[in-house]
């Protein structure tokens, strides 16, 4: 089973990707995680990508394509791909790769939330710069305000989590995803999941669908 998962900032797609990975034993490939790893390594490429994120812009396709496709080459099939493709050029690169290797995507799933919900969820996020623990001022506050429960470091707000940057990211997401959603709709594999509500509520909307696809795949 191969899955594409999409969603605006704060949709919970990473959380649900991990649940899906755990349940079906798939490989989780997140373009966002790969980009952040590159940035924390402080490479030339990482510094370039950091700049785009800080101003709320998308990283150039050629950079993202080479990052993701080289990762896909290591695990052929049974993957969940998070946050990719996000532009027409990325769709082309992915389609070429899939065609060359005889791989099919079973479902292109979008977990959708409103702009207001996106801004509320993301701008309340605080991260520990020391150990990477993630908090939310409303949904997951630390025991001592502003301090990490795990290591005691002072929590920070990531520059791309500021409300004005989130709003820009959301609008870019909607604008860029429109033709991509149209493409996957035409292929008959697009599914939109309502991402509002708690994690378990959303999960109960996702799981029956994937159970169905999974059973179809394993039935001879
Ligand atoms: Zn910490």
Describe the structure.
With 220 residues, this protein is of the alpha/beta class. It has a single domain (3-122, 161-218), classed as P-loop containing nucleotide triphosphate hydrolases (Rossmann fold). It is 53% helix and 13% strand. The chain has a five-stranded parallel β-sheet, sandwiched between helices. A two-stranded antiparallel ribbon has the order 5-6. Strand 5 (125-127) and strand 6 form a beta hairpin. Helix 2 packs across helix 3. The protein starts with a strand and ends with a helix. Zinc ion (ZN) is lined by residues 128, 130-131, 133, 148, 150-151, 153.
How is the topology of this model organized?
Blueprint: E1 3-6, H1 13-24, E2 27-30, H2 31-41, H3 44-54, H4 61-74, E3 79-82, H5 88-101, E4 107-112, H6 115-123, E5 125-127, E6 134-136, H7 163-187, E7 190-194, H8 199-218
Parallel strand pairs: 1-3, 1-4, 2-3, 4-7
Antiparallel strand pairs: 5-6
Helix pairs in contact: 1-8, 2-3, 4-5, 6-7
Features of this protein?
single chain, 220 residues, alpha/beta, Rossmann fold, five-stranded parallel sheet, 8 helices, 53% helix, binds zinc ion
